[in-house]
Design goal:
By secondary structure, the chain is an alpha/beta fold. The protein folds into two domains: 217 residues, Rossmann fold; 60 residues, Alpha-Beta Plaits. It is built from eleven helices and 14 strands. The strands form three sheets. It has a six-stranded mixed sheet with strand order 6-7-8-3-9-10, sandwiched between helices. It starts with a strand and ends in a 5-residue tail after the last helix. The protein binds adenosine-5'-triphosphate. Adenosine-5'-triphosphate binds next to strand 2 and helix 1. Belongs to the ABC transporter superfamily.
Length: 309
């Protein structure tokens, strides 16, 4: 399949501060592509370069074969864009804003627009200034989807959405993909990207550290399981288990905090030998994963050698 986004050695500096350095990747037409990185990694900078809201210091980027800077007007016809933050007229209602965007697009399918509003449970009757951040995100998502663009570029689309709206959003993304259209979405949450994307680029401190299939995220994925027992348990038994990377004993050995990679089966079976009071599990932030498991400045270089396209 042909590439719909082609980025080559793109570099943007903010004065002497880094934005992004030498970023290169390709997104194929028809795929859902994730752009994953912790806060401040350079996701928004890359997206703003693609949308010609910033000009690169060096490197090139094309969308559908068009240069993102010189041919940005043509590109805007093909793209639905959700910015990281939406600044809109505070006195307009959600409905008025969507009508306005619809006119800018030369008219949109009203039935599809109504459907999107209903699916995201969005109330279009309120003024923009009264919307919560989640509702502002919904306006942004709806305006990006409503003209059925060939390419959707979405900057952290689900931040601020509640879990039910997130699930609906995932279904909307899958429908776009099934329709043969392309979605490029940024996120700082590994599991979110894992659920929607086929391929992923990981950016850290302005540089790409990896581009590959979503299955490859397995080796960087970690989760923390905290188990509280009725009485102290032998910590050493848990350290040996398959998938366990670290064990920390708390509350005089009654609580264990385990860092697990891969399946939790061995941990659950070992825990079940003792009276368990509670189990919780959570995903560490991407920054935590990088800091704790990928320490050292050589990481980017080492991982870049594994780049696959
Ligand atoms: N207008 C600006 N002036 C100076 N530095 C900037 C500007 N915009 C971004 N930066 C810097 O560029 C780097 C990349 O920021 P960017 O917003 O692209 O990251 P991000 O991955 O989108 O993070 P976030 O999820 O926090 O938005 C950061 O170090 C940031 O401080």
């Amino acid at each position: 399949m042909a590439a719909i986004i082609e980025v080559n050695n793109l570099t943007k500096r903010y004065g002497n501060k880094r934005g992004i350095t030498d970023v290169s990747f390709q997104v194929e037409e028809g795929e859902v592509f994730g752009f994953l990185g912790p806060n401040g990694a350079g996701k928004t900078t890359t997206i703003r370069l693609l949308m010609a809201l910033l000009r690169a210091n060096s490197g090139t980027a094309c969308i559908a074969g068009l240069d993102v800077w010189r041919e940005s007007v043509e590109i805007k016809r093909l793209v639905g864009y959700l910015p990281g933050e939406l600044a809109l007229d505070p006195n307009l209602t959600g409905g008025q804003i969507l009508t306005y965007f619809g006119h800018l697009r030369g008219g949109v399918d009203q039935a599809y627009l109504k459907q999107l509003i209903a699916r995201l449970e969005f109330d279009p009757s309120r003024k923009f200034r009264h919307y919560s951040s989640g509702n502002k995100r919904k306006i942004g998502i709806i305006q990006a989807f409503m003209h059925r663009p060939r390419l959707l570029i979405l900057d952290e689309p689900t931040s601020g959405l509640d879990p039910l709206n997130q699930q609906e959003f995932e279904r909307m993304v899958k429908e776009v993909r099934d329709d043969g259209r392309t979605v490029f979405l940024s996120s700082h949450i590994l599991t979110e990207v894992e659920q929607t994307c086929k391929r992923v680029a990981i950016i850290r401190e302005g540089q790409l550290v990896r581009v590959g299939s979503v299955e490859e995220l397995k080796d960087i994925k970690r989760y923390e399981v905290t188990i509280t027992f009725a009485s102290a348990v032998p910590v050493e038994d848990f350290k040996q288990l398959d998938g366990v990377e670290q064990v920390e004993a708390l509350a005089a050995g009654r609580t264990l905090r385990l860092t697990v990679q891969g399946q939790a089966d061995a941990v659950i079976k070992a825990a079940a030998r003792y009276p368990v009071i509670s189990v919780t599990s959570h995903e560490p932030s991407l920054e935590d994963i990088f800091m704790r498991y990928y320490e050292g400045d050589n990481t980017a270089t080492r991982e870049a050698s594994h780049v696959v396209h």
